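Look at one such:
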Amino acid sequence: MPRFDPRLGALLPLLPLLPLLPLLALLPLLVAGCATNPVTGQREFSLVSADQESQIGREGYAAIIAEYGNYPDSAMQAYVDTVGRRLARVSHLPSLAWRFTVLDDPVVNAFAMPGGYIYITRGILVHLNSEAQLAGVLGHEIGHVTARHSAQRLTQQQLAGLGLGLASIFSEGFQRYSQAAESALGLLFLKYGRDDENQADDLGVQYALRAGYDPREIPATYAMLKRVGKRAGSGLPAFLSTHPDPGAREDRTRALASQAATGRTGLVVRGRDYVRKQDGVVYGPDPRQGYFESERYYHPGVGFQMTFPAGWKTQDSRSAILAVAPEERAKLQVTIAPASALSPDAFVAEMQRSGRVSETRGSRETLGGYAAWVGRLVLPPDAQGRQSVLAAGFIRFSPELMFQVLGVSAETGSADEAEIFDTVRSFRALTDAARLSALPDRVKVLAAAKSADFQSVVEALGPQAANLEDTAILNNAFPDQDVRQGELIKIVAPGKRR
């Protein structure tokens, strides 16, 4: 769900209104050459040096946090970082400046960025059931970095002539981040190949064992991921869409782990301790960060509401709300405008004075009691001499915060454009006390009162926000599975939206 943070204004520059540079403009950054693969020791062709990998990871970090959010639990962040660093120390790149981050996103996934930046969502954390499983996931992602899979994907994309710009409906007209950061964001949506996934699976088992974890916990993770499938409510993809199963993954990792752990004793699992740490973790979309009810959008965290066109598809992230008309006839995007003390009309006038828009056609309005400017922006001609016209609205919500709504339609004056302007003019403060006090669903950890089958135990634990199947997946269990008295069970305690 959208999770607007007023501090993100500086990260969302509308200006300058320049087309994204074509792919070849990235080539000065990605200088061709050869590099030694740290895992294989072999020389391989690469357009991305180790220094450039670090730059992409470093600059991409701010953009990824802006888009998907940092989970606000310092203890959980520190715990994941500790486990991650334990694995990184026994990897093929122990001296790399590794960074492990929990994203505030419900989708079940984990990502590896060049330069040692590893991201894991709270969505996957709550679906794991031991520290050894966590080590397996982090080890897999570390393997993608040490084997330079991301660098190879970047090289392949460059050679294929494909760009890696920020996935945004306005990517052709606006550049919100540096080229390196946009490359990092683009990597989140690219799939690894079969060979890369097999190698990362091998390295995940290897690194977990080297760090003292029992790799025989890892196959259960892949069984869980198959059951989870894709989750709705986020712009992030699910694990198996970016890390496709190369074939018999669960069986293959079970054989690898069994062979690797033969004769080893004292390997770490930490099941109960790990499950206890999940108590209170947010489950699913967090309504405090914004949510839709039909066409109506509410954001309790910032305190505003809007109405979007009926029948349009919507998508949101921490930094933007996107809406697309049927057959992509029109599109609109809501973001926070760049930090500025100017009034909306003065802000628009400054864009024209600076040449960042060639013409403005609109006027001051008052929307829901807030100063606004609503009208059309004519952009400077592109390289082919074409001019774009945007339907736009700027709303001064507070001295520190101004919203911008930008829309494009097939024709100026069309019904679709009118709906964009209707969306702009629907902006209001959220004053409903019940909605302002929205609370998310959270994981609750309880001990089974008696021995019984999983379904009976769960049904005896009171009102819950997740159905039986989702609760079973959360526990890596099945409804007819036996549960012992005292065994820890994760359920989802209901929050509220109104």
Summary: The radius of gyration is 24 Å. The CA atoms of residues 192 and 243 lie 6 Å apart.
